[in-house]
């Protein structure tokens, strides 16, 4: 199991541009960016797997950003959020991971706040089996979470778990979606320990802001 209490001992953690970072609206270099983002086929969750610190959903789906094709790899979860937005930390952050055929990684981060319940998250929680990889009884459509991304930060960073690979294209949504208090508690009952990496140095990286 990955030890989040000993993050300073993770390999490669001090190299280059690392993630997550603190995203400050007043510091963005361009707040009128419009990325050409298209969902070419639905993002469907098909398997759920226990990865010790969280669970992950794998499946199928394709998107393009500026005409570059990315295949859906997985959705996984962090509680509390890893990125900060205008110094605010959210109860959860969902990471939608994509790759090109050339293995370029792109991650779309979505913040979750407490509010109305999410039927999708209920389905995920209901299907989870500790220590197992389970085929979902019904494919879960994750596409709606990637629609209407009107306020998004973009920067170059890394994976937030070892091997902390650099060169990751990060798109982090500013507008949160809601999960109920009960849903957040259900998740925390399964994974009691926080699994957020600490905020990393900016190192003069540019951050842009716009619409997908």
What does the model show?
There is one protein chain. The protein is mainly beta and 212 residues long. It has one domain: Carbonic Anhydrase II, CATH 3.10.200. Helices cover 9% and strands 44% of the residues. The protein has helices at 119-127, 181-190; strands at residues 22-23, 30-34, 37-50, 55-65, 68-78, 84-85, 92-99, 105-114, 133-141, 152-158, 166-173, 177-179, 208-211. Strand 10 (152-158) and strand 11 form a beta hairpin. The protein starts with 21 loop residues before the first strand and ends with a strand. Pfam families: Carb_anhydrase (PF00194). This is carbonic anhydrase. It catalyses: hydrogencarbonate + H(+) = CO2 + H2O.
Which terms summarize this structure?
212 residues, mainly beta, Carbonic Anhydrase II, 11-stranded mixed sheet, two-stranded parallel sheet, 2 helices, 9% helix, globular, carbonate dehydratase activity, zinc ion binding, lyase, Alpha_CA_prokaryot-like, zinc
């Amino acid at each position: 199991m990955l030890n989040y209490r000993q993050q300073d001992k993770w390999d490669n953690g001090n190299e280059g541009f690392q993630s997550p970072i603190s995203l400050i609206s007043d510091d963005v270099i361009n707040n009128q960016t419009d990325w050409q983002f298209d969902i070419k086929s639905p993002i469907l969750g098909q398997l759920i797997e226990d990865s010790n610190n969280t669970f992950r959903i794998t499946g199928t789906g394709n998107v393009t950003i500026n005409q570059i094709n990315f295949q859906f790899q997985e959705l996984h979860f962090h509680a509390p959020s890893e990125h900060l937005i205008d110094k605010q930390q959210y109860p959860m952050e969902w990471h939608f991971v994509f790759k090109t055929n050339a293995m370029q990684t792109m991650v779309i981060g979505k913040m979750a706040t407490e509010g109305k319940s999410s039927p999708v998250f209920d389905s995920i929680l209901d299907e989870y089996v500790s220590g197992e990889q389970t085929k979902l009884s019904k494919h879960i459509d994750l596409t709606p979470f990637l629609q209407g991304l009107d306020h998004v930060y973009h920067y170059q960073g890394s994976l937030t778990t070892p091997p902390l690979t650099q060169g990751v294209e990060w798109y982090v949504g500013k507008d949160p979606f809601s999960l109920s208090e009960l849903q957040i508690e259900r998740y925390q009952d399964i994974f009691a320990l926080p699994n957020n990496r600490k905020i990393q140095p900016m190192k003069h990286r540019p951050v842009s802001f716009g619409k997908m």
